[in-house]
Amino acid sequence: MNKLLLKGGTLVSARGTKRADVLISGEKIVAVGKRFSTDARELNVSGKLIFPGFIDAHTHFDLAVSGTVTADDFDHGTKSAVAGGVTTVVDFATQYQGETLTEALNNWHMKAFANSSCDYAFHMAISDWNEAIENELPAMFEQGVTSFKVYMIYDAMALSDRAIFELMTALKPYGGIVGCHCENAGIIGKLQENAIARGETSHVYHARTRPDYTEAEAVKRFLSIARAADAPCIVVHLSTKAGLEEILRAREDGVAVYAETCPQYLLLDDSAYHAPFDVGARFICSPPLRKAKDNKALWNALKNGQLDTVSTDHCAFTSEQKRMGERDFTKIPNGMPGVETRAALMYTYGVKLHRLTLPQMCAYLSENPARLYGMYPKKGVIKTGSDADLVIFDPKGSDTITASRCHSRSGYTPFEGMQTIGGVKKVFLRGKLVYSDGEIVLEHSGHFVTRKKYSL
Ligand SMILES: [Zn+2]
Q: Which residue of 54, 268, 289, 337 shows the fewest CB atoms closer than 10 Å?
């Protein structure tokens, strides 16, 4: 068996940091400690941090949406992921209306198979709910799909409160968990219609027609449904202080709610929409970018351990695709790239600015998503028996984020020009070096990860 010793690095876990060597044999970590006598090949990583491979539990690769298809398929999306230290993505297999869950899952397997440069798993996004779909749930668990996604908004995807309640209840015996895109469809739909009727068609109205209380209301309603079902749940891409307050209140009432946010809701705000269309439209995502007070509240929540994961909602479109909505902001495809830049941003603007500790960064990017999505301890931790998914992170050196060095096909990054400190140097996926000093050195070796019940 091929053996490798990573020597002299500082290992990061959700509980702390320690100096230790890591012995890899084949795809697994076989020992963690010091002074091994081994015939393994050695790699000196002194001065470097070693994280368990980052997990991005919120990506949309090869997704048909808004009359187009996301710019990044699994090939480009997972290369972008690996370059950002991500060794596992959990993408959203999406059931389009009229499809069975089995069809949706098979479709996503076909998109990802032999195309992925990191490991991948799927949440199942449900857009149709009826008895036949309910009867397919056991088959999803048998195939390693244990988390589900619902939308409260988008005509093509939205489920009623009743359907969400029924789904949550149906998932309980299996230990399944539901994540929700929380926005009030009725208010936003009408605000958009009014804006267009008044001739307010430019991209700046995207955020103005999605006020923060439309997220907070939907969060509160989703958590009431979870309370009624007595089921755990996840609020994905939380963007507002008002929504956070609903989560904290529901927890006091005993609701088991986990919450995710994304770098764009921590680091960017709605002033980005003041730019002319071609630049401003790059920042169109839903929920939209918010205010400085929301950024601040979310950073505080991360610091206080009130959130559980930081994912990206990577959903990339080119400038040309964005132009579909040049005369009507409601037609701008929603989403931005992010999978590649998350780690450097969280290190620079989180750890280095003392908004987060290193162990917290590890918790939010590796261990918590592994636990929440049923992959722990195979993923998310550096310990004997775990997959040798490892990120060699250089804490020194500075850089500037620029799209020209990113792998997304969107052609831009919303974080263009931002300074970073430190960065991903090498990435091992199940023991194989897949990324090294700016280059993808091994492609398409990602496997599907079958997941168990959540354990956070
Ligand atoms: Zn999303």
A: 268
